[in-house]
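Project standup — Tuesday

K.O.: blocked on the structure for the chain from last sprint. Re-posting the sequence here as requested.
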Amino acid sequence: MHMKCPCGSMQSLNMCCEPFILNKTRPKTAEQLMRSRFTAYSLKKIDYIHQTTQGKALEDFDMTSALYSMNNCQWTSLTILNTLLGMEFDETGFVEFIASYISDGLEYTLHERSEFANIDGHWTYIDGEQYTA
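H.V.: unblocked you, prediction finished:
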């Protein structure tokens, strides 16, 4: 039996996000990239997170902090709230989501509107606006 994908798609990991994370194929939409990045955080695949980050997000990217966060959080669920643009031939896309995680035994949520850019057919994460409850 195959493991379900952490992104919440209800598909098996090997039919959903894993091909993206293993660089066998590329996400065709901003939402697919968002889901695959959540899965990469869940599976502690920092290289995928780094390679799918550009622009302001890459300027702010700190490998040490990202690894610390990855190793001290258990990502538990992803809920996509809204998408704007982000289809295969769009230049930009936005995905608003809530990601739940556990850190130090406490449950938390991250509510963000992520911005993505399609650069030469490759979707990348370029910025995000976080919301507080």
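K.O.: great, moving the ticket to review. The helical segments are 18-21, 30-42, 46-51, 55-59, 63-72. The two ends are 38 Å apart (CA to CA).
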